[in-house]
Specification:
alpha/beta, about 270 residues, seven-stranded mixed sheet
């Protein structure tokens, strides 16, 4: 693994509970949509990479024969396993593993997904190659990534609030070399060997009781914010968090709709591969 703290299990374990709640509200609708692009049956084998607490694995298990959920965070996978047991879903197996070295044989799955995980991987090309390797010919891959901050009202609101507390943050800058760029997204999927690649833009609407709930939800579910909290120390964190809340109290109306925008990349492994 590389040196970024966001590539370690510990930082994701620390936000597992809050992340699970956020995933249910924001990520699961995108996951359910992603499943529509794969013709799953009761015989299908599904792979969910960076599965987290199960936003995709749980609904996939209701349609497929078996689901393999992979993540680097044992804490996330424990919550996933607990949720599966509570729902009576016995066809999910969890594996703590690196997406760059999946513990599965070639051509093991009919469909593979990664919801909002690939953006954190230190080597996207290698991870995409692994997804291609473990898919059966004709299999489908679906990957999601957030749209640029400036295009997503939810992320824009949060960024503006955070910039109020940390003025040196400046204006949000799009990373044109990341999966935020549909051309890069499509190119990387094609380079990995996928055919018929399309990048689609989708949105869902989020609502919060007030600005305090919005901020608390983000803090409890964001590994990046928890990392900042550790680096800054509690005194500086408390001061900056107060400024964020004040901004949201002024700008966010109770239950105001805030669309969240994501890009879905869909591709297929050639039949003759």
């Amino acid at each position: 693994m590389s040196g970024s703290p966001l590539e370690t299990a510990e930082v994701w374990d620390a936000v597992a509970v809050g992340y699970g709640e956020f995933a249910a509200a924001v990520m699961r609708p995108f996951a359910v949509l992603a499943l529509e692009f794969a013709a799953l049956t009761s015989e299908s084998a599904v792979l969910d990479v960076a599965a987290g607490t199960g936003a995709l694995s749980l609904p996939a298990a209701e349609r497929a024969g078996r689901v393999a959920a992979v993540d680097i965070s044992p804490g996330m996978l424990r919550l996933l396993a607990d949720a599966a047991a509570a729902a009576g879903l016995h066809n999910i197996v969890t594996d703590v593993a690196d997406a760059r070295e999946l513990p599965y044989a070639d051509r093991s799955f009919d469909a593979a997904f990664s919801m909002f995980g690939l953006m954190f991987f230190p080597d996207r090309y290698r991870a995409l190659g692994e997804l291609h390797r473990v898919l059966r010919p004709g299999g489908t891959v679906v990957i999601s990534n957030w749209a640029p901050v400036c295009e997503s009202p939810l992320l824009t609101m949060l960024y503006e609030a955070f910039a109020e507390a940390v003025p040196e943050l400046g204006e949000p800058q799009q990373d044109f070399l990341s999966l935020e760029n549909p051309e890069v997204f499509q190119s990387e999927l094609r380079t990995a060997g996928f055919h018929g690649v399309v990048i689609q833009r989708h949105s869902i609407v989020t609502r919060f009781a007030d600005g305090a709930e919005l901020w608390e939800t983000m803090v409890r579910s964001s590994a990046a914010l928890q990392l900042m909290r550790t680096l800054w120390g509690e005194e500086l964190w408390a001061e900056r968090s107060r400024r964020v809340r004040e901004y949201l109290d002024r700008r966010y109306r109770p239950n105001q709709p805030l669309p969240a925008i994501a890009l879905l990349g869909i591709g297929h492994k050639p039949q003759l591969d």
